[in-house]
TrEMBL record:
Residues of the signal peptide: none
Domain (DUF1468) ranges: 18-167
Keyword Transmembrane helix: yes
Protein name, per record: DUF1468 domain-containing protein
InterPro entries, sorted: DUF1468
Pfam families associated with the record: TctB
Native source organism of the sequence: Actinomadura darangshiensis
Membrane-crossing residue ranges in chain numbering: 48-65, 104-131, 143-163
Keyword annotations of the record: Membrane, Transmembrane, Transmembrane helix
Length: 174
């Protein structure tokens, strides 16, 4: 009986995760279109977020279909036994930290929720900082350096190199 429940639990967590990412991708897409996508010659602030949203939605739909069908993520080798698979599944389910998943999803929702108001670079920097702490970066200084570096790299790539205007927000920070 235990061997039958583990694959269902795995499939349920896959469906929940893929469904959450699908909703997040659709939200990003709607908000990106609201920012204006521009044209290929002159991209708007929402162009690259829309590209990310499309990729996220496509990947999420693929994972959601696999989860609903019960398609395994990897095929076991010929030397694997059913008992080894059941033990591996039990260990994988025990390793899931749902609070981390919920925390990272909450931080990801921070970007579309306040990015246009606070400023995209500031929001992305704070989001990366918070996600790093949630995922286990122990030192605050390391998380702050990671957040600032990500914000600087984003600014350099989009604003300076690609000439993509990002929402500056009420703070006037790109």
């Amino acid at each position: 009986m235990m061997m039958r429940r583990l694959p269902r639990m795995r499939a349920a967590s896959d469906v929940i995760g893929a469904g959450s990412l699908l909703v997040l991708g659709l939200l990003y897409g709607v908000l990106a279109v609201g920012e204006g996508i521009g044209t290929m010659a002159e991209t708007g602030a929402g162009f690259f977020p829309l590209v990310v949203a499309v990729v996220l939605v496509a990947a999420s739909v693929t994972l959601l279909v696999q989860g609903l069908r019960g398609t395994p993520r990897g095929e076991p080798g010929p030397q694997d036994s059913a008992q080894d698979d059941a033990q591996d599944d039990a260990q994988d389910d025990a390793d899931v930290h749902w609070w981390r998943i919920a925390g990272v999803l909450a931080v990801a929702l921070l970007v579309p929720a306040v990015g246009a108001t606070v400023g995209m670079i500031v929001t992305l920097s704070v989001s990366v900082l918070l996600a790093a702490k949630i995922m286990g970066v122990s030192r605050w200084t390391s998380a702050v350096i990671l957040g600032v570096a990500f914000g600087a790299a984003t600014w350099l790539l989009f604003v300076r190199l690609l000439y993509v205007p990002l929402p500056a927000g009420t703070l006037g920070l790109v």
